[in-house]
Amino acid sequence: MKLYIKFMVSLRCKMLVKAELKNLGLQYSNLELGVVDIIGQITQDQREVLKNKLLRSGLELLDDKRTILIEKIKNVIIEMVHYSEELPKVNYSDHISEKLGQDYTYLSNTFSEVKGITIQQYIIFHKIERVKELLLYDELTLTEISYQMQYSSVAHLSNQFKKVTGLSPSFYKKLKDKRKSNLENL
Q1: Which residues pair with 4 in a beta bridge?
Q2: Helix 119-137 to helix 169-184 angle, to the nearest 10 degrees?
Q3: Reduced to 3 states, what is the DSSP secondary structure of residue 145?
Q4: Rounded to whole angstroms, how far apart are CA atoms 77 and 150?
Q5: Per CATH, which fold does 1-63 belong to?
Q6: Is 29 helix (H, G, I), strand (E, B) or coil?
Q7: Domain 65-186: CATH superfamily, name plus number
Q8: pTM > 0.70
Q9: What pLDDT, on a 0 to 100 scale, did the predictor assign at position 83?
Q10: DSSP conformation class of 96
Q11: Which regions of the chain are under pLDDT 70?
Q12: DSSP letter at 79?
């Protein structure tokens, strides 16, 4: 039996869910971002306890099919942008459609209807968040980040970054350096 969990987007979330399942005596065969394969059945009481425990931690057990589908789409995107060594070489639409085994037009329309933004906008938002992380780590040049995040050019990355954040990547990086120097002067 599959359980779908909203806001389960990090390794820490996975550890929390594992602990709650263990406390309830529930065994699972697979635990990924946003989904758990429970071995056997889960009673209504166990489901309610799990739902309440997860809510206290900022996670939500999902029941609605559309909400579950949206979470699946979001998890594929988060996995793709934040946790993959490199972004897929195929179109994002093909990648998402293949991962979820559904027609991309249906996925896209459902996502836009429920979230109020397109899948493409959601991907851009997460790519920019990842770029921010990489800028703060200060291990890669902007050119290397642009290549890693599959932008056609540094200019394209810079334009998209500024559109989303209101700042240029170099100014964003300077803000980090300024904060660091201010802390050192305390």
Answers
A1: 35, 62
A2: 40
A3: helix
A4: 14
A5: Alpha-Beta Plaits (3.30.70)
A6: strand
A7: Homeodomain-like (1.10.10.60)
A8: yes
A9: 85
A10: H
A11: 177-186
A12: I
